[in-house]
Amino acid sequence: MGRNRLEAFSDGVIAIIITIMVIEMKVPHGENMAALLPVLPVFLSYIMSFIYVGIYWNNHHNMLQASGKITGSILWANLHLLFWLSLFPFVTSWMGENHFATAPTELYGVVLFMAAIAYFILQQRIIAAGAPTLRRAIGRDWKGKVSPIFYFIGIISAQWSPTGAKLIYLGLAFLWLIPDRRIENLLVDSKE
């Protein structure tokens, strides 16, 4: 399978994930702004999940641009990542519907943690298959290394403070929203 097919398949799955998340949001009963208050937690959890799925989509795209050949282990690692991303609609809905209660917030963190681990595995499989540009671009990858640690801290802290866990998850989302141009810059430099 070529890189374009893998990217198209992944893009399709990610588009379906976002579609399911938005379909899960129910229209409030009422015609004024006060009717939105009961669904505010659902909407806020959707925004956070949309940001995370968007981050994964963008980084996945950049990573595949720097890949060489696509091996069987890359296909399986990619499916592993897509599995964890596919759980976003469930944990997003559960967390929002239960107003960020402890157990849903913990499980949300578990999915974030496992998606980060799956992304790391995919990244390593691509590098192992021969992607020197990706290897150089990744470098020390401090964001990739610190994120699972903070997701784990968020999972543990949700037992005492679901709000604290949400703040950790949001902080990491904003950390990843800062554009990381390492891969793009190396790809441009290699074409010149």
Automatic annotation (TrEMBL):
Entry keyword set: Ion channel, Ion transport, Membrane, Potassium, Potassium channel, Potassium transport, Transmembrane, Transmembrane helix, Transport
GO cellular component: membrane
Family: Belongs to the TMEM175 family.
GO molecular function, one term: proton channel activity
Residues of the signal peptide: none
Membrane topology: Multi-pass membrane protein
Localization annotation: Membrane
Source organism phylogeny: Bacteria, Pseudomonadati, Pseudomonadota, Acidithiobacillia, Acidithiobacillales
Name assigned to this protein: DUF1211 domain-containing protein
A Pfam family it matches: TMEM175
Catalytic activity: K(+)(in) = K(+)(out)
Stretches that traverse the bilayer: 12-29, 35-55, 75-95, 107-128, 149-178
